[in-house]
Amino acid sequence: MSARLHEFKDGAALAEGLADRVAAVLADAVATRGKATIAVSGGSTPKAFFKALSARDIDWSKVTVTLVDERFVPADNPRSNHLLVAENLLQDKAKAANFLPLYRDAGSAEEAAKLVSEDTGALGHPFDVAVLGMGTDGHTASFFPGGSKLAEAISAQTPRGVITMEAEGAGEPRLTFTFASLQDARLLVLHIEGQGKKDVLAAAESDGPEEDMPIRAILRRAQTPVDIYWAP
Ligand SMILES: O=C1O[C@H](COP(=O)(O)O)[C@@H](O)[C@H](O)[C@H]1O
Question: Quick one: which of 33, 94, 98, 161 has the most CB atoms within 10 Å?
Answer without folding.
Answer: 94
